[in-house]
Amino acid sequence: MATVNIRRDVEDKFYMPVLETKIEGRGNGIKTVVPNMEDVARALNRPPSFPTKFFGSELGAQTTMANERYIVNGAHQADRLRELLDVFIVKFVLCASCKNPETELVITGRGNSEKIHRDCKACGAHTDIDMRHKLTTFILKNPPKKEKKGKKGMTAEANVGGPMVLQENAVNGGGAAGSNEDDSPAPTPSRSKSTDDSLTKGLKDLDVDDDEDDANSPYGQLGTWLEENRSASDADIIAKIKELEIVGKHKALIEIGHKLFTDNIAAEVGTRTALLQALVTSEKHQKSLLGGLERLLALSPDSDELLAKGTTSKVLMALYQEDILDEEVLTNWGTHVSKKYVDKEKSKKVRKSADAFLKWLEEADDESEEESDDE
Ligand SMILES: [Zn+2]
């Protein structure tokens, strides 16, 4: 992996991977994926969502962070993003006093007086972040969480959302540096901001499999409830999932895919992208959602008609464009007939009805490979 000094103006021992970009999609859906954002961010000791959001705010572009994919809408040159990364590093990583990159972001104060500073492990300085930058709002809402060992591959939201653990290590490890700037009461291991981003908070709990499939299981109950409440708001659906204590469970996505939509799913799916983005947090969740959709499309009384008019392609395209399902999972799904959710014949038919999309995906991928700027 190509690496580069974190500081561009010196040769020191701190390296990060060279930021890579890949253009995907076309037309209005064209977007720039940063495939190695997690690695770059890890080298900077920041959640990958921070530089991604920074790019978005500097470029005036929307960003999407889901399923370990970090995406800036629009087509952006790799060089431009690398320049912006350098700016990010100066503003949000390097110690303002000694320019060392080994810093932690620490939030102090409360309410309107919240501040972010960099705690430097090298010289002990606490240097303020310029709170006028838009990214600071995002950082305050998504404070950096202490890295969990062996948990590589958590989603962006898991990194920045999840339980809010205020970083305390600067205080614990810094000795003399102390916490004199921290005017909050005794160290709080966590703080609740449950009113913010309530859609996504608390939905990333560890995913534990259990095998209850019957109607009385919480999943069965969710399915029944969804059928009866298809017009429920996203928030109501999430409340129901919480009530049934299946928050974060990938199996809930089987029910969502199967029971929330009707024969008119091609039109309906677009109204539920925010919900699905919040709920689909791993590859497993993606597969369960696909399984549920497969059931819906294969078991509907109008299945043949639905499949004949390419409904599967339309639905998958929408979910791909919104970064709910990713390329790898989709390609894998498209090439593997399975009897896990419906019988084999049906499973084949559903995949056949996705032909147009799967072909498009393959071609779009070839194109983006040519366009990508990997020095
Ligand atoms: Zn320093």
Summarize this entry quickly.
Residues 193-206 have a biased composition (Basic and acidic residues). The chain has 375 residues and is α+β, with helices and mostly antiparallel strands.
The helix-strand sequence is EEEEHHEEHEEEHHHHHHHHHHHHHH
Report the bound ligands by name, code or SMILES.
Answer: zinc ion
Which strand order spans the largest sheet, edge to edge or round the barrel?
Answer: 3-4-6-5
Distance between the termini: 11 Å
Q: What is the general shape?
A: elongated
Percentage of residues assigned to helices? 40-55%
- The CATH class of the largest domain turns out to be Alpha Beta
- Going by helix content, strand content and strand pairing, the class is alpha+beta
GO biological process, one term: formation of cytoplasmic translation initiation complex
Domain W2: 209-371
GO molecular function: eukaryotic initiation factor eIF2 binding; GDP-dissociation inhibitor activity; GTP binding; translation initiation factor activity
Family: Belongs to the eIF-2-beta/eIF-5 family.
Topology:
Layout: E1 3-5, E2 15-17, E3 22-24, E4 31-33, H1 37-44, H2 49-59, E5 63-66, E6 69-73, H3 78-92, E7 103-108, E8 115-120, E9 126-128, H4 135-141, H5 156-160, H6 169-173, H7 218-228, H8 234-243, H9 252-259, H10 265-268, H11 273-279, H12 283-299, H13 303-308, H14 311-321, H15 327-335, H16 344-352, H17 355-371
Antiparallel strand pairs: 1-2, 3-4, 4-6, 5-6, 7-8, 8-9
Helix pairs in contact: 2-3, 7-9, 9-12, 14-17, 15-17
Zinc ion binds at residues 95, 97-98, 100, 120, 122-123, 125.
